[in-house]
Amino acid sequence: MGFMFEGMEPTRTQTLEFSPAAGGGGESVVEIELNAIDNDPGAVQSGHYLWPGASSMVQFLVDIMYSSEINSSANVDSISKSREILSSLSVGSILELGAGCGLVGLASLQLWGSNNTGSPGSSLKQVVFTDHDPGTLKRASDNYEATQKKRQRKNRTDGAVLQNNDELKVAFESLSWGDEADAVRLKSQLVEDGGFDLILGSDLIYCCEVVRPLLQTASSLLNKESAFFLSQSFAYDPETEDEMDQACHDLGLKRTILLDSSDKGNQHYQKQISGFLKIQVFEWSQ
User: Fold this and answer.
1) How far apart are CA 286 and CA 253, in angstroms?
2) Of 3.40.50.150, 2.60.200.20, 2.102.10.10, 3.40.50.300, which CATH number belongs to 2-10+22-37+46-284?
3) What is the chain's percent helix, strand, coil content, to nearest 5?
4) Which parts of the chain span the membrane according to its record (predicted)?
5) pTM for the full model?
6) Measuring CA to CA, which residue among 191, 218, 197 is closest to residue 88?
7) Bridge partners of 256?
């Protein structure tokens, strides 16, 4: 549905900055120039809006990589588990599913492509933004260009500056969930070692019917030792929860809930979105 809103709604360009929740000195480590429809998406299924799950995912990733201390025990557990998973990955390639405006993918470029010592490393070679809507892919591409130009103008040398690396490739590709041929095409064109090292997504599941196509595509694009991190800013109904568990079982995936704002001790992330937040990770079952 996103293409229906292209050029029809007023948009706003804003600079989004993210700093660690604790121990980072309050200095931003991610800075994105982002244009999106200037309104709350509500129930509209369009990637032209900035969905709250995207901002929350970026904040969560920043905290994983840069926060030296987290106050609440629940956050300690979720951050610790996430760090353990990410530290086991060699992140040379990143894919964003349902990229929309591209915020999560743009942040991953700065987090994994940074030459700052706080970054997990500088082995990143490729970031791919995917969506079924060519209009949102164009918006994500425009946001990438705007972010790059702004950072070049500022000539910054801190953690928000992408490492100068001629080998780092950025691509914007159409992808339909549940279409195995489409996933095979994407892998054959862009990935040499059989799959992506890290897959990211935010606010992708809006009804039960998209669960299996989404997870089927994610499983087709994961390599043997990679992970799919997914954030959600609204609660699933019981039918959707059951479908996720069944789809994971059928596809050989393990689903781990890293953070659920309905649990006590997650006040920091509740403040970020003023509502619900769930972050989960999907990996291959042992």
Assistant:
1) 9
2) 3.40.50.150
3) 40, 25, 40
4) none
5) 0.87
6) 197
7) 281
